[in-house]
Structure formats: structure tokens, C-alpha cells
Amino acid sequence: MGTNRIKAVVWDVDDTIFDYGRADLDGIRAHLAVEGLLEEHGGEEAALARWKTVSGTHWRRFVAGETDFEGHRRDRVREFLGTPLTEAQAAAWWDRYVTHYESAWSLFPDAAETLAAVAGLCRQAVLSNASLLVQERKLTTLGVRDHFENVVCAVELGIAKPEAGAFLHVCEALGLAPAEVAYVGDDREVDGVGARDAGLRSVWVDRDGTRGPAPEGCRADHRAGRAACAADRANPFWSPVHLRVMFFLRRPGGPKGQREAHTEGKPPSGVEFWWAMV
Fold first, then answer.
1. Cβ distance 153 to 168 under 8 Å?
2. Total Cβ atoms within 10 A of residue 213
3. Minimum mean pLDDT among 3-12, 126-135, 143-152: which range?
4. Cut 0.70: pTM above it
5. CA atoms within 13 A on the CB side of 104
């Protein structure tokens, strides 16, 4: 287990502090209704499911370096519509969707409070696999940009999570060693395992409880898990109560008796992996 005091928390954005999933589905629902395409794609439920599947496919292509950021957006549109659109046509369709998507932007209900609380403990930054233009605008619009010293994005960096270089770059930008930085993200492999393997302290947030089980060799804070949140679903992330998920910011060893260890394996030497199912 690492003994370095955590000096900075680096955040993922989408589906970690920003409710991307809801904004995306609300946006595409409104867009398809305006375009008259809901029934053409089998009704609302089928259309939204197809959009989610297609979006995931092309996002993974972008992360893998198989296409660029704008290209993955155009390909999402083409595959969803099943139409060989020109680049201009696909981009125009996407831009019409984005109008609806941006109108649905919101933080998770507890995110602003959590960022403010962490600001009293240590420095903060962002590492995202999206573009700097998009995330700067999003964080500014949502009123939380001032919490972050650095916003580092894969499009401009040329390296995407889970590559170690992406995590190490943001550590270098902060002037800190990886062991002095905690990374918080929602994707089990891209964020959780990626940060752990790069030497950061890793916090994997499973907001809806559907992305488990926790990776082998992790530890879980069961006190701040599903049972603790069952009666508080309106505030399911890190309220002052659930901020204990990050008590290692103060004491890397943690308060005695408040952690339960998984038995599947041990964390890599010098790295502590945390699983927060909240």
C-alpha cells in the first residue's frame, strides 16, 4: 500500500461529475422527435437503445486510435441512420443533435458540493478522453471550471486513457508523482484499471451499481456502498456522508475498522485500488 499523502485529485468528467448518459439520451430523444425519426427506428425505446449501442461502438474506435474525434461523431450518425452521408451532411445532423444535447446538460446533484469539499483538502484537475474545447465549455457552463488547475484532454494530447502516458501527463502538469495523485472515474477498465496501472491511487465510481464486480485485487468501502445509499437515492454520489469514500485524502491508511478488503487478490505493490459503488 502506498504511503504518500494525496496532494491532488484528477477527475474524469462524463458520467463521473457530469450526467452524460442522461443528457445524451434526453438530447437524442428530442432530436429524433424533431427529425421525425423515432418511429422509423422502431419507436423510442428501440431508437434510444440503438443510439447508445452505436455511440459506444464508435467511441471505442476513437479511444483505440482507429478514427479521430470528429470522425467518430460522423460515423455514429452514418451507422445510426444507415445512410452513406457526406461529411458535411453527417456533421450537420450531429450539430442539430448537439443543440438538444447541450440543453440537457447537468452535473450530478452532488457533484458541485463534492468538488467544493475536495477543494478544501487538495488540488484538482481533469483528465478526459474527449476534446479540450468540449470539456472546457462544458465545465464553464456548469459552473465548476474554476475548481481545476488543469484540464487535459485526449484529443489535444494525442494519448487516450487507459494508456499510462495520459495519466502520467496530467501528473507532470501538476508537478506531482503518480503516487501523490488520486484519479476518479466511472469506467472500470479505462479509468479504474488504467489509473491503477499508471501508479495513481484509483477510485472507480459505479453510480448505478451495474458495472461490477470490482476488479480483482481491489478494496471496497462497503460502508459507503449500495446499502448506505439505498435510503438516499436523491443524492447517490458523494454527499458529506459519502465523502468518506475519499478519506484516504487525509490518511492513506484510513480510519481503523472502516474498510473491508476483497479476497480475490492483492493490489499491485505501492498501489491501492478503491471501488466505490455508490
1. no
2. 13
3. 3-12
4. yes
5. 18
Q: What is the 3-state secondary structure (H, E, C) of the chain?
A: CCCCCCCEEEECCECCCECHHHHHHHHHHHHHHHHCCCHHHCCHHHHHHHHHHHHHHHHHHHHCCCCCHHHHHHHHHHHHHCCCCCHHHHHHHHHHHHHHHHHCCCECCCHHHHHHHHHCCCEEEEEECCCHHHHHHHHHHCCCHHHCCEEEEHHHHCCCCCCHHHHHHHHHHHCCCHHHEEEEECCHHHHHHHHHHCCCEEEEEECCCCCCCCCCCCEECHHHCHHHHCCCCCCCCCCCCHHHHHHHHCCCCCCCCCCEECCCCCCCCCCCEEEEEC
Q: How many CB atoms lie within 10 A of CB 5?
A: 13
Distance in angstroms (rounded) separating the CA atoms of residues 205 and 217: 16
Beta-strand relationship, 260-261 and 181-185: unpaired
d(CA 64, CA 157): 14
> Residue 132 — very low, low, confident or very high, per pLDDT cuts 50/70/90?
very high
The cell numbers describing 180, all together, are 501523490
Cα(78)–Cα(92) distance, integer angstroms? 12
The answer to whether the CB of 161 falls within 8 A of the CB of 167 is yes
Q: Taking every pair of C-alpha atoms in the chain, what is the biggest distance, in angstroms?
A: 61
Query: Residue 164 burial by CB count (10 A; 0-12/13-18/19+): exposed, middle or buried?
Result: middle
Closest CA to 98 of 67, 141, 53, 57: 141
Q: Residue 2: how many CA atoms within 13 Å on its side-chain side?
A: 23
List pLDDT tens digits, range 90-121: 999 999 999 999 999 999 877 888 888 788 77
CB atoms within 10 A of CB 270: 12
Tell me how far apart the alpha carbons of residues 157 and 152 are, in angstroms, rounded to a whole number. 7
- Give the integer Cα–Cα distance in Å for 106 and 126: 17
